[in-house]
Design a protein that fits this description.
- It is a single chain.
- The chain is mainly α.
- It is built from 6 helices and no strands.
- The longest helix has 60 residues.
- The protein is rod-shaped and about 105 Å long.
- The C terminus is likely disordered.
Length: 182
C-alpha cells in the first residue's frame, strides 16, 4: 500500500509536519507573550483558529499528494503494461522455439514426409509457431513504444496487430478433424 499510494502518504506527512511546525511556532510565540502555553498543549489541544488552520494545512498536504498520485498514475499503469508484455514475450519465446525445433526434427523424418496427414499436421504446427513468434515480436515493438511514451504510435501498432491477427486467422487453413487417422 505504501508503494502504491506513496504520494498521498507523503502529502499527509507533509500536512502533519506543517501541523507540528505551526504548534512549535505558537508555543514559542506563547512563551514570549505569556508563559502559559507549552508545546504539548499547542500540539494536542489547539484553539479553534489554530485547529482550522492546521486542518487546512492537512487538507492542502493531502490534496497535493493526491494530485501527484493522479499525475503519476498513468505512467505507473503504462509501465506495468510494458513490463507485462516483456514478461509475456520472455515466457513465450522458449516454448515457441522448442516447437519450431521439434517440428523441424519431425519434418526431417522419412516416416512423416511419406505420411500425408502427418506432414500436413507438422506444417500446420510449424505455421502456428511462426505466427506466435511474429505476434510476440509485434507486442515487443508495442511495449517499446509504450515505454518511450509514443502512445499514438503504440495505439496504431495495436490496431495493426489486431488487423494482422484477423488476417492470419482468416488465412489459416481449416484444422484436421480429430476423427482422421494419423
Amino acid at each position: 500500500m505504501l508503494k502504491r499510494y506513496k504520494e498521498i502518504i507523503y502529502g499527509l506527512l507533509l500536512g502533519l509536519a506543517m501541523w507540528v511546525v505551526d504548534a512549535a511556532m505558537h508555543a514559542q510565540l506563547g512563551a514570549d507573550v505569556h508563559s502559559s502555553g507549552s508545546f504539548a498543549d499547542e500540539l494536542l489541544r489547539p484553539g479553534a483558529t489554530q485547529l482550522l488552520f492546521r486542518g487546512v494545512f492537512l487538507f492542502i498536504g493531502v490534496a497535493f499528494g493526491w494530485a501527484l498520485w493522479r499525475s503519476n498514475w498513468r505512467e505507473r499503469e503504462l509501465r506495468a503494461l510494458e513490463d507485462a508484455i516483456v514478461v509475456f514475450h520472455r515466457k513465450l519465446d522458449p516454448p515457441a522455439m522448442r516447437i519450431v525445433s521439434h517440428i523441424r526434427m519431425l519434418q526431417g523424418r522419412p516416416s512423416v514426409t511419406r505420411d500425408e496427414v502427418a506432414a500436413s499436421v507438422a506444417e500446420s504446427i510449424s505455421e502456428d509457431a511462426r505466427i506466435i513468434d511474429q505476434l510476440a515480436q509485434q507486442y515487443l515493438h508495442f511495449s517499446e513504444q509504450v515505454l518511450q511514451g509514443r502512445t499514438v504510435e503504440a495505439v496504431e501498432t495495436l490496431r495493426a496487430i489486431e488487423a494482422w491477427t484477423s488476417k492470419q486467422h482468416d488465412a489459416t487453413p481449416k484444422q484436421i478433424s480429430p476423427d482422421s487417422t494419423l
